[in-house]
Amino acid sequence: MLFEAFAAVLSGALSGFVLGLIGGGGSVLATPLLLYFVGVASPHIALGTGALAVSLNAFANLAGHARKGHVLWRCAIVFSAFGMAGAFLGSTLGKLIDGDMLLFLFGLAMVAVGLSMLRPRRLQPGERPAITRKSCVRAAGMAVLTGAASGFFGIGGGFLIVPALILATGMATINAVGSSLMAVGVFGLTTAINYAASDLIDWVVAAEFLAGGLLGGLVGLGLASRLSANKDALNRVFAAVVFIVATYVLYRAGSTLFTR
């Protein structure tokens, strides 16, 4: 029991650290860490527990970005509101999928996350675009799709939300990163509530993971400004880690799934 608590706090710290350091992607490590390091028995419980911890971590990080003026609230609210429906549908479907199949698909999603991290990110503030009704409609449509993916895989989905916001509105990347955290929080909370309704959350592990995540996020945010010139290098290192973990997830889930 003591090791499980230590492992949960350490896993949360690692996930939060990555989120604070490079502005996304850290939540994708939550499910593999909860399953294979902490020892959560069920893939569905790992997904529900991770979604809750990631959601609360995202809201904590949102406050920091809001203080710096990075959040474009109108788009963030529209994206979050419409994405809730997608997150609910996605998480409902995820609960119906066989656990090993869901993990295998999750491994493929991790590969997509790793590939997205290899793209250079320009974080200069730039000019804020005018948010028009047309851009909000585009954002709403993309929100439903990204929310569904986020709910299905039980992850924050920041790697999907950031490019979706940029494509829909033309906002600068730093504003997309800040604004995406509201959607990450809302999508994760919607997923967690859906999983909680089916008793698929380990509340104690979620609290331990969250405690570690808040601490790791503070350290990551503090280090981010010092290493801002090396963000692309950090993204590549993180992508390599994600590919390694994805390979392991695909192997574990695939070996069980295809040898039944």
Give a quick summary of the entry.
Helices cover 79% and strands 0% of the residues. The protein has helices spanning 2-22, 30-38, 43-67, 73-96, 99-117, 133-153, 158-169, 173-197, 203-224, 231-257.
List keywords for this structure.
mainly alpha; 260 residues; transmembrane; globular; cell membrane; Probable membrane transporter protein
Would you kindly provide a written description of the structure presented here, covering whatever features stand out?
The protein is an all-alpha fold. It has one domain. It is built from 10 helices and no strands. It has helices at residues 2-22, 30-38, 43-67, 73-96, 99-117, 133-153, 158-169, 173-197, 203-224, 231-257. The protein starts with a helix and ends with a helix. The relative contact order is 0.23.
* Tally of structural domains: 1
The overall pLDDT average reads: 83
Q: What characteristic shape results from the CA principal axes?
A: globular
Uncertain runs: none
What's the story with the biggest beta sheet?
none
Structural class: mainly alpha
Terminal residue distance: 31 Å
Work out the helix count. Answer: 10
